[in-house]
Amino acid sequence: MQQDANQALIKIAGLSKYYGSKAALKSVDLTVGRGEIVGLIGPNGAGKSTLLKAIMGLIKYSGSLTVFGQEPMKNRTKMLESMSYIADVASLPGWMKVSDMLSFVADTHPKFSRSRADELLRDTPIRQQDRIDTLSKGMKTRLHLIAILAIETELLVLDEPTLGLDVLVRRDFQDRLVQDYYNRQRSILVTTHQVDEIESILTRVVFIKEGSITLDIQMDELKTRYCKVVSESPMNFAGLPNQAIYQRNLPSKVEAIFMDADRELLSAHGDVLTPSLEDLFVATNS
Ligand SMILES: Nc1ncnc2c1ncn2[C@@H]1O[C@H](COP(=O)(O)OP(=O)(O)OP(=O)(O)O)[C@@H](O)[C@H]1O
Question: Per the database record, which ranges form the ABC transporter domain (predicted)?
Fold first, then answer.
């Protein structure tokens, strides 16, 4: 499924998903293009996993959804040749040895590189002869990520990929993702609650809340449109053309987040900084 460079890999319009009378997704529109690393960020129960499952053709939905121009539920096998997915619950066969599991993936996935997997594995304490059920929870997740990283697909869909991993391994995984992205022009759609850690590798962020997308913005644009004012004394923004979208009063300082505000006017009130993704997430979900 080779596509031309400008074609959207994922195209979603008016996507809704109901569980009984409960709406998990409400008319979601989202397009993911080639070379993008998109972070799908939202509070618990926002609909992130549901959206990824729809993209993977694992659940029924209403609305329009194509991946590589195909409907996932109808062309799942073909679609999986060009994309890889890791769910938030790692499920590897515990009775297998690591080497057998990698051989199994090699036999079943045409784009799996066994030599790449072996190379990645050498940087970990996991040995080829280890039985999977003797590995710690974090090591199992790590093995799963290695298997996924060694599949050379154009699109990676990752649901909470680093859950349960220590900070060193999380950082290593993110660095490898970026290397792959720059080297191979892959696209990545990733959900995570580790907002602050993922921030540096994203090109775009999508906030989702109660089944609806509340913000969809390139990281560069986010840095120019939003700012954070920090002051050690109480701030009074009365009279400013833009009011803060969020204010946090701490014992030692006051922080306020603004959108499309005049930074020069704000500088009279405190230090004007670029908000972190976490700041923005809290501001838009409070
Ligand atoms: N199989 C299901 N049956 C009924 N309701 C479901 C099912 N799966 C998800 N939901 C509901 O749909 C909503 C969205 O769930 P989803 O798992 O997509 O959230 P999420 O953003 O991934 O949350 P988290 O960050 O906690 O993993 C929630 O209200 C959830 O209870």
Answer: 10-235
- CB 21 less than 6 A from any atom of ligand 1: no
pLDDT (0 to 100) of residue 2: 46
* Ligand 1 centroid, distance to 273 Cα (angstroms): 35
Which tokens hold the place of 139? 């090591």
Distance 51 CA to ligand 1 centre (A): 10
Q: For ligand 1, atom 2, name the residue with the nearest CA.
A: 19
Contact 140, 164 (CB under 8 A): no
Phi-psi region of 222 (alpha: psi -120 to 50; beta: other; left: phi over 0): alpha
Structure-derived torsion over alpha carbons of residues 91, 94, 98, 103, reported in degrees to the nearest 10: -70
Give the confidence band of 181 by pLDDT, cuts at 50, 70, 90.
low
**42 pocket-lining for ligand 1 (C-beta < 6 Å):** yes
| CB-CB contact of 53 with 85 (8 Å) | no
Q: Against a cut of 0.90, is the pTM above it?
A: no
**Buried residues in 107-128 as b, exposed as e (16+ CB within 10 A):** eebeebeeeebeebbeeeebee
pLDDT for res 3: 46
**What whole-number distance in Å separates Cα of residue 103 and Cα of residue 23?**
41
Q: What ipTM does the predicted assembly reach?
A: 0.98
Please name which of 158, 7, 15 lies closest in space to residue 69, comparing C-alpha atoms. Answer: 7
Q: What is the pLDDT of residue 1?
A: 46
Close Cβ partners of 37 (under 8 Å, ≥ 6 residues apart): 177, 178, 181, 187, 188, 190, 201, 202, 203, 204
